[in-house]
């Protein structure tokens, strides 16, 4: 039957209600934990024990426990109706009810409508069929009238979703995928409960005899996920994180559960690896908008396997598949297999893996028709293509539906082709001529060198072999078809292993890699990229320029500007197509070889296929894919050459050699004419060829390697062996290879024939399957990406540990919290795009950045001044100050800078920080608060055209220790001063010395109000020179330590005198202040309420409705009133309580511990990554 992955029925049984009717479900124990209240020969009405009257006590406790263990829906359905025939022991649930009234309605309907009818039947099977059909008919009618689709969430699953969100306090954005009954092992005690798998978390809940257990693990924190068996636990899943290990067992279907866990963990790893991971495959956002059923993720996995199997473009999605047979004219047989249909392709693969496979792009299809059925050929379907090939499929069970689907996709494809032709119709063929010219130039160079260096007879021999190969391929095309629609069989593979002819190599590489499909569907794309990238410069283009002349320098094609220019265009175009990869060393070597056999545009699309499909993640900035395959290679070596594995591990040889082998497909370590044979096999078979060949190289040198004493000796042996690999069939000139590994003066290794080496790899290691490699890759990807994350953390901490008083352990804990909050926001939405905040290609400090909403969460949890309703407003002010480059994002260094000041800064630093966050205008960014402690810690923004001299100048300025002059700080106006007062009052609301601090704050605010008034007397707004302004500035000179202690010891009664001494040596100033201060009075803390502002001294407070970011200008605000930081500092120094409060260091460890157990998602939540089991009762 046709299996569609977009509309398939979910794994769990559908439970759709109409007056609480449910699809009949078999029940094993009819009386366990249930009491029968009504009964007749066919139906039983039961009530759950422990519900209703007498539901408490031991019975209620036992039922509550077993509800969790056995039946997730029992709590919401305490009543049910069972169907049973008189002589049968099998019961069927046909109705649920949450109340006696509901279930009674169902019972009465059954008695009135079904009992008499059932008595007519003689056969019990007929009765069962009739009852089940009747109930299903009622439900189907209800679904039809209410437009309920088959794939909508079932009632049972909806209950699980509600339970999941309630138990684990998850937001609505966190989508549950599926849930399973299992046991969790806490020590030696199993806890039976439910495992909930959501998009971002693995959760477990158990309730046993009054004791509750919860576990939540973030997928992004999983370091290992494995399924294995022991004598005690035949089927178990082990989930490991950095700090703990968790074991689950007793699954009803462990394979399905583990497969889903792998999919979800893989999604999390993609998100960590790539800043596009949160929008990967365009299906993840779709899942986030609607409850992502397990079937949707299954469809996603099926599409990935489908694309990998047939080398299709990354955006191709499988629509469905069906069993069928294919008539193969080359052997006149009907081959059994499966047909796959997607938006743009029809594909076929035989049940016997190597028998036959077929790819038919819909753009090539001309006719799809249903042929006449017969006994020999039931339900046949004929598909004709443009190259006059006809494919005959038969035994199609859903032929009509299939033809309709193909017709729909064909209509879409036709319109696309028409649109593309309209756009590209005017394109000239000049680019093709350039590409052809490069290939022909290379061929000319080869012929010239060949005829100069080789005898004619030897050349003729090589040509004869080449001619025979070409004839073999032409015969193959005649029999099996040519082009993308050819039949691919075991014979095709045999021809590839014998070597592809030189002049067919480019064509067949395009065909086998699938690059031909992307090139055909993107006409003009490469030319546009080349045009857009011309004259543009960035880090990638600089690296490309540096490596251009290192790309096969021994080959004549790249000893002139023509070849170099083509290589530059291809590499630069790809860097602009995929900025996440840009350019990586080794890409130049691979691309050089592609250009030798393909036109420029073809080489570009071959590079796309390599980087994005065939070698995923190999060429990103951290070569993650190559590291993953290095781990896979180690695993394979352990399995296939176990006697060598321990020795190689001890010498650390595998990790050293494998990167160069894999990244360049042996092109950098093997003679060129031999390495291209490896590339032939790779494009046909994929990565398994590289693993097979690598294992063969180790196996061939096993005895020499076992006797090695160090890694240098082992590298020399392998290097000499690979240098000796030759291709005796090659018509290419002998090119001196500069890529050999370590060599010595010993005897050269005997020649090794490349074709024998390849065949040997298939004979010994051909059993390695692609699906096994993918399974190993998943396991290694977890390890590699988590290791990279740990390295990033260590590098960030090492970078800033000398700039902050926090310890290394504290910084690591803070980094974990910072990263966790960032990821949480990416999962559940934020005010900014996750892709703008998470970019693994950036320097370590910039990879995770935080916006304001995220910062508010951590500010409330970690910063000591966060308190009360004023927290969000204060967080906004702090964020503005820390965001020195005004991009609305702060990195970890900036975050730590602000936290360091608040926790470990001295009195002056803390007060300066407090002052600056209030003097900061709404949209204007002052210099970074990093000046407060050490120096400006800023990261220079990326520039389109780098100027290294500018970088050096900026770096020199940043590294110079700066002493910020207090006089450089702007004055605080009256509205800003009022906001500062509000902050001070809110800051002390939970302090033990709360009252004393309130009174001290009232004294200081009164003092500062008077200072502002005094300042006005000497600041005439009209006609004042800069010199006069400087002379009349009210400033506080630096105080000695002795004077400061005198001020701290002064009593409140001496406040006026002390402040007068601080203000000025001018007699007039002192006397004026004395006159004003004589009439002053202390302000009480209630005078600074959230909805009031202070006006001129001596006046009452006026009502006011404030607004975030500052106060509105009105008649109650004195625009000429202002104070300086010196005055603010001096005033605070007069109050011992405030001095002690700001000088007291803050212990960050306790705040980190609290933050790890709390997450804010609109309300308090749970722990941040790997939550411990919480027990209650």
How is this structure best summarized?
The protein has 1177 residues and is an alpha+beta fold. Helix content is 50%, strand content 13%. The two termini are 52 Å apart.
Percent in strands: 5-15%
- How far is the N terminus from the C terminus? 52 Å
Number of strands: 29
Please state the CA-atom Rg, rounded to the nearest Å. 38 Å
Derived from helix and strand composition plus strand pairing, the structural class reads alpha+beta
Fraction of residues in H or I helices: 40-55%
Instruction: Please mark out the parts with pLDDT under 50 across 5 or more consecutive residues, or reply none.
Output: 4-18, 71-76, 277-291, 418-437, 440-458, 738-743, 922-949, 958-963, 1022-1115, 1160-1177
Biased composition (Basic and acidic residues): 1040-1052
InterPro entries: EF-hand-dom_pair, EF_hand_dom, GRAM, PH-like_dom_sf, Rab-GAP-TBC_dom, Rab-GAP_TBC_sf, TCB1D9/TCB1D9B_PH-GRAM1, TCB1D9/TCB1D9B_PH-GRAM2
Domain Rab-GAP TBC: 499-686
Region (Disordered): 1022-1056
């Amino acid at each position: 039957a046709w299996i569609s992955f977009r509309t398939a029925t979910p794994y769990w049984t559908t439970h759709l209600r109409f007056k609480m009717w449910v699809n009949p479900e078999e029940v094993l124990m009819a009386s366990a934990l249930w009491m029968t209240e009504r009964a007749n020969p066919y139906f039983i009405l039961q009530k759950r024990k422990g519900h209703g009257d007498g539901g408490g006590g031991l019975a209620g406790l036992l039922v509550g426990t077993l509800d969790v263990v056995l039946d997730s829906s029992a709590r919401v359905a305490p009543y049910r109706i069972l169907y049973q025939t008189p002589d049968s022991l099998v019961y069927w649930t046909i109705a649920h009810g949450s109340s006696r009234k509901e279930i009674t309605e169902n019972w009465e309907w059954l008695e009135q409508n079904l009992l008499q009818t059932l008595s007519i039947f003689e056969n019990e099977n007929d009765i069962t069929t009739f009852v089940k059909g009747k109930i299903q008919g009622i439900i189907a009618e209800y679904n039809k009238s209410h437009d309920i689709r088959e794939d909508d969430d079932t009632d049972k699953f909806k209950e699980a979703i509600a339970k999941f969100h309630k138990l684990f306090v998850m937001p609505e954005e966190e989508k549950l995928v599926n849930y399973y009954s299992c046991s969790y092992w806490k020590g030696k005690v199993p806890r039976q409960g439910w495992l909930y798998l959501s998009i971002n978390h693995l959760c477990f809940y158990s309730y046993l005899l009054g004791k509750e257990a919860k576990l939540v693990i973030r997928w992004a924190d999983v370091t290992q996920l494995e399924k294995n068996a022991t004598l005690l636990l035949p089927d178990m899943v082990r989930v490991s994180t950095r700090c703990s290990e968790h074991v689950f067992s007793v699954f009803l279907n462990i394979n399905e559960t583990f497969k889903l866990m792998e999919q979800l963990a893989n999604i999390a790893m993609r998100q960590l690896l790539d800043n596009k991971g949160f929008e990967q495959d365009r299906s993840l956002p779709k899942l986030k908008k609607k409850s992502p059923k397990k079937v949707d993720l299954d469809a996603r996995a099926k599409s990935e396997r489908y694309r990998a199997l047939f080398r299709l473009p990354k955006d191709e999605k499988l629509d469905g598949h069906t069993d069928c047979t294919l008539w193969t004219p080359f052997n006149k047989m009907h081959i059994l297999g499966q047909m796959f249909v997607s938006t743009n392709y029809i594909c076929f693969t035989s049940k016997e893996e190597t028998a036959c496979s077929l790819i038919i792009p819909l753009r090539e299809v001309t006719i799809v028709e249903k042929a006449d059925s017969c006994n020999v050929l039931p339900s046949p379907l004929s598909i004709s293509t443009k190259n006059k090939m006809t494919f005959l499929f038969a035994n199609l069970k859903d032929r009509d539906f299939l033809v309709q689907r193909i017709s729909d996709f064909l209509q879409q494809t036709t319109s696309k082709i028409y649109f593309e032709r309209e756009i590209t119709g005017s394109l000239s063929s000049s680019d093709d001529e350039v590409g052809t010219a490069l290939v022909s130039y290379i061929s000319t160079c080869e012929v010239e060198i060949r005829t100069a260096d080789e005898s004619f007879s030897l050349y003729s021999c090589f040509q004869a072999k080449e001619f025979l190969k070409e004839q073999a391929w032409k015969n193959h095309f005649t029999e099996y078809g040519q082009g993308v629609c050819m039949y691919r069989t075991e014979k095709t593979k045999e021809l590839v292993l014998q070597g592809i002819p030189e002049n067919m190599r480019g064509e067949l590489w395009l065909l086998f890699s699938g690059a031909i499909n992307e090139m055909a569907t993107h006409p003009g794309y490469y030319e546009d990229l080349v045009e857009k990238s011309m004259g543009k410069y960035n880090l990638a283009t600089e690296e490309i320029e540096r490596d251009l002349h290192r790309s096969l320098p021994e080959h004549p094609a790249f000893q002139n500007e023509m070849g170099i220019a083509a290589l530059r265009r291809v590499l630069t175009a790809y860097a602009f197509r995929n900025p996440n990869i840009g350019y990586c060393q080794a890409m130049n070597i691979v691309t050089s070889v592609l250009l030798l056999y393909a036109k420029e545009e073809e080489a570009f699309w071959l590079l796309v296929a390599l980087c994005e499909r065939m070698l995923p993640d190999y060429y990103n900035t951290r070569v993650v894919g190559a590291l993953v395959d290095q781990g896979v290679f180690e695993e394979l070596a352990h399995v296939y050459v176990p006697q060598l594995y321990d020795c190689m591990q001890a010498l650390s040889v595998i990790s050293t050699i494998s990167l160069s082998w894999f990244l360049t497909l042996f092109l950098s370590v093997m003679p060129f004419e031999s390495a291209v044979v490896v590339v032939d096999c790779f494009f046909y078979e994929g990565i398994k060829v590289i693993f097979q060949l690598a294992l063969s190289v180790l196996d061939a040198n096993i005895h020499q390697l076992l006797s090695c004493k160090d890694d240098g000796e082992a590298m020399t042996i392998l290097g000499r062996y690979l240098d000796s690999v030759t291709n005796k069939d090659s018509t290419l000139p002998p090119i001196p290879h500069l890529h050999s590994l370590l060599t010595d003066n010993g005897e050269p290794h005997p020649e090794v024939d490349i074709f024998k080496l390849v065949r040997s790899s298939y004979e010994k290691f051909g059993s390695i399957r692609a699906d096994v490699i993918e399974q190993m890759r998943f396991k290694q990807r977890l390890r590699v990406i988590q290791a990279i994350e740990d390295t990033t953390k260590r590098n960030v901490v090492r970078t800033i540990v000398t700039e902050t008083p926090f310890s290394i352990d504290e910084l690591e804990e803070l980094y974990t919290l910072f990263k966790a909050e960032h990821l949480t926001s990416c999962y559940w939405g934020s005010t900014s795009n996750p892709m703008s905040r998470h970019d693994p290609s950036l320097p370590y400090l910039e990879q995770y950045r935080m916006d304001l909403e995220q910062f508010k969460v951590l500010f409330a949890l970690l910063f000591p001044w966060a308190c009360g309703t004023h927290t969000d407003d204060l967080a906004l002010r702090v964020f503005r100050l820390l965001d020195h480059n005004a991009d609305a994002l702060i990195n970890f260094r900036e975050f730590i800078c602000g936290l360091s000041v608040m926790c470990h800064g001295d009195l002056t630093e803390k007060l300066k920080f407090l002052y600056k966050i209030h003097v900061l205008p709404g949209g204007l960014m002052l210099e970074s608060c990093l000046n407060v402690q050490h120096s400006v810690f800023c990261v220079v923004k990326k520039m389109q055209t780098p100027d290294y001299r500018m970088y050096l100048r900026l770096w020199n300025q940043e590294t110079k220790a700066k002493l910020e002059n207090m006089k450089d700080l702007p004055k605080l106006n009256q509205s800003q001063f009022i906001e500062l007062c509000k902050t001070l009052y809110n800051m002390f609301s939970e302090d033990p010395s709360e009252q004393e601090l309130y009174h001290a704050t009232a004294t200081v605010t009164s003092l500062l109000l008077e200072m502002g008034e005094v300042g006005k007397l000497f600041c005439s707004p009209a006609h004042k020179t800069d010199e006069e302004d400087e002379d009349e500035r009210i400033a506080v000179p630096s105080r000695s330590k002795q004077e400061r202690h005198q001020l701290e010891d002064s009593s409140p009664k001496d406040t006026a005198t002390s402040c007068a001494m601080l203000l000025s040596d001018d007699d007039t100033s002192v006397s004026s202040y004395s006159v004003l201060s004589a009439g002053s009075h202390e302000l009480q803390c209630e005078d600074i309420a959230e909805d009031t502002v202070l006006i001129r001294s001596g006046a009452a407070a006026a009502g006011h409705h404030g607004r975030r970011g500052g106060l509105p200008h009105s008649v109650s605000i004195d625009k000429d009133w202002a104070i300086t930081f010196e005055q603010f500092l001096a005033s605070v120094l007069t109050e011992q309580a405030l001095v002690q409060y700001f000088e007291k260091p803050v212990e960050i460890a306790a705040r980190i511990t609290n933050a790890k157990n709390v997450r804010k998602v609109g309300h308090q939540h749970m722990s941040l990554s790997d939550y411990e089991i919480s027990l209650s009762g």
